[in-house]
C-alpha cells in the first residue's frame, strides 16, 4: 500500500541516525505502548478541561434556567472554535510538522511554526469579528429569546472577545504535539484550568471588592485561563524546548499549503459536527421550548466532552501517522490508525452506556426542572449507546489528518449531518416526538463511525 506523497514529502527517506530520539520512537516504537505513553498527558488535560466545563456549567446553573439555556446556546459555537483551533487547523499544523520531521526537513519544521502563528492569529480575529457582529442573530435563530438570549450575549461577547488568545495557545500546542511532545502542552493548559476554577465563581458571584458580573464573569474567567496557557506554551516553543522552534523565516505559500491543505478540509468536518448540534438545537427549541433546550444542551455537553477525551488519543495519532507517512511507512501508519480507533471506541462506548443507564446522575448536576430532566434523559438513553461509534470515527478523523487524507472523513461527516438533522426534521414533520429526533442522531453517529472505518481499512489512503 502506498500513499501519494505531497511535493514537500518527495525528498529521499531520512537517515535514522539524523533523527531525534522522539521521532525515532514514533517510527519504531511498539504501537499500543507508544500510543498510551503519548496519550496520557493529553487525556489528563482534557479530563481537567472537561471537569472545569462541568464546574462552570454548575455555577451558571445557580443563576437559573434562563442562564443555563443561554449558555447552551453559546456552547456549540465556543466548542466549534476550540475544535477548529485545536483539532482542525491545529491538526493541520501538527500534521505538517510531523511530516516534515519524519522526512528530516528540519528547516521547514522551524518555518512552519511562524506560518502556524500567522494562520491562527488571522483566524482568531475573524472569529471574534463574526461572533461580536452576528452573535445576536445566530442565537435568536437557534431559538434564543428573552432572558436566555440576553444571557447568551453577555457570555458570548466576553468569551469570543478574547478568542485570539485561544487560537494563539492552540497554535503553539499543535506545534509541540506535532513533534511528539505531549506533556508540555498539557502542563500549560492545566495551568490555565487551575486559574479558571477559583476565578469563575469569584467573577460570577463576586466577593469583597470584586463585583458580581453574573454570566459575563464566566466568560472573563475563560479569557484569563486562555491567556495564561498561551503565555506558557509560547515560552516553551520560543525557548527551544521543542524540536520545531520559532525562528525568523520568509513566508512561503508552500508551507501555508502544508497546514491548510489538511486544516481547511478538517475545518469543514468540524463545522459539520457543530452544525449538526446547532440545527438539532433549533429543532428541539421549536418542539419543546426553553426548558427542552436546556435539557438537550446539558445532554449534548456530554457528547461534546467526548471530543477532548478522544483528542487524548487523537493528538498522538496525528503525530505518529504523520511521521510514518513522511518516512514512507504506510502499512505501519494504517495499523496505528486502526489500533487507535479501537481504543477510542472502548472508552467512549463505556461513557455512553453509563450515561444511558443513569442519565439523571449527569443531568441532576445542573438543574431539577422536570422538562429539562425529561428531555436530557431521553437524549442520553437513545444516543448514549452510539457514542462508541462517534469515538471510533473521530479517532480515525485525527489519523486521517496525520495522513493528509481527509476526503472520506469529510464525506462521513456529511452523511452524519444528513441522517441526523434530516431524519430528525422529517420525524417532527410527520408528527413524531423528540424521541424520534434523538433516534436519528444515534443513527447518524453509527453511520459516521462505520463508514469511516470501512473505507480506511479498505485502503482509501492509498487512492486519490
UniProtKB/TrEMBL annotation:
Its main location: membrane. This is MATE family efflux transporter. The chain crosses the membrane at residues 38-60, 80-101, 113-140, 152-176, 183-207, 213-238, 259-285, 305-325, 337-358, 378-398, 410-430, 436-458. InterPro entries: MATE_fam, MdtK-like, Membrane_Transporter-Flippase. It is found in: Cell inner membrane. It comes from the Bacteria. Pfam families: MatE (PF01554). Keywords: Cell membrane, Membrane, Transmembrane, Transmembrane helix, Transport. The lineage of its organism: Bacteria, Pseudomonadati, Pseudomonadota, Alphaproteobacteria, Acetobacterales. It is a multi-pass membrane protein.
